[in-house]
Amino acid sequence: MARAGVTAERLTLAAAELADEIGMENVTVAALARRFGVKDASLYFHIRNAQDLRVRVALLALAELADRVAAALAGRAGKDALVAFANAYRDYATRHPGRYAAMQIDLDPETAAASAGVRHAEMTRAILRGYRLSEPDQTDAVRMMHSTFHGFVSLEKTGGFRHTPRTTDASWSRALDALDAVLSNWPPAESTDAETAR
Amino acid sequence: MARAGVTAERLTLAAAELADEIGMENVTVAALARRFGVKDASLYFHIRNAQDLRVRVALLALAELADRVAAALAGRAGKDALVAFANAYRDYATRHPGRYAAMQIDLDPETAAASAGVRHAEMTRAILRGYRLSEPDQTDAVRMMHSTFHGFVSLEKTGGFRHTPRTTDASWSRALDALDAVLSNWPPAESTDAETAR
DNA sequence: TGGTTTGCCTAGGAGAGCTAGGCTACTACC
DNA sequence: GGTAGTAGCCTAGCTCTCCTAGGCAAACCA
Question: Distance between CA A70 and CA A72 in Å, rounded?
Answer without folding.
Answer: 5
